[in-house]
Every structure is written in C-alpha cells, then in structure tokens.
Design a protein that fits this description.
Length: 125
C-alpha cells in the first residue's frame, strides 16, 4: 500500500514540474541509479540492478530520441542532431556495459546525465 501511495505522490510531483524540470529529474534519477550500482559493485544483485539502471537510462534516452526526431520539435536542427549523436553514443555504451560490465564504464553515462540535467535546470521553460 505504501508503495502505491509513494508512486502516486511521485507522479504528482513530476506533473507539477515544467517539461525541462521533469527531464532533469529523470536524468538525475537515472544517474543516481547507475551511481548506486557503481558504489555497490560487489553486491550479489549487481547484475539485476545494473540491468535495471541501464534499461531505465536507455528508455529515457529513447524518449529523447523520439522527441528530437519530431519535426515539430522547437530546438534548432544542429542541437537536435548533436543530442541525437550523443544518444547514439549512450546506446552503444549501454550495450557495451551490459555485455562487458565494469564500474568505470558507468562514469561517462552518469556524467552526461548529470551535466545535461544541470543545463536543463538552468533553462527556464
């Protein structure tokens, strides 16, 4: 029962955020999930939590890809193309990390998410 109440509260919080704030929040959530796995690399459930964190991050970046490919997207074409290239790199790193797990492979994914989230928080919108 508490879990469903927490989920409802979390969804309500996200719906109250601006689009940019919501994007920043989910990027930070993904970064936190990956950081947790990295910090607990020797945990017996590492493979499961690693897969969960990476799949969450991949799903998130897939949403960004879809939005960036939308012709109605208001971002300038060059920015859209650059972020799409970045998302392709992220996809490759996720697959590589799933195939050959190593904690240091998460650093770049965590840093990208954190830096983009910081930039989104700095943008009003």
């Amino acid at each position: 029962m508490q879990t469903s109440q927490a989920e409802v509260y979390s969804r309500a919080q996200v719906s109250a955020l601006s689009d940019r704030e919501a994007e920043a929040a989910v990027l930070m959530k993904a970064a936190a999930m990956m950081k947790h796995v990295q910090s607990h690399w020797s945990a017996p459930d590492r493979d499961m939590t690693l897969e969960k964190a990476l799949k969450y991050n991949q799903r998130l970046w897939t949403f960004f890809q879809v939005a960036l490919l939308d012709e109605k997207n208001p971002l300038p074409q060059q920015i859209r193309e650059n972020v799409l290239r970045l998302s392709a790199f992220i996809d490759r790193r996720i697959f590589e990390t799933l195939a050959y797990p190593a904690p240091e492979k998460l650093d770049i994914l965590i840093n990208i998410n954190t830096n983009i989230a910081a930039g989104l928080k700095g943008v009003t919108g």
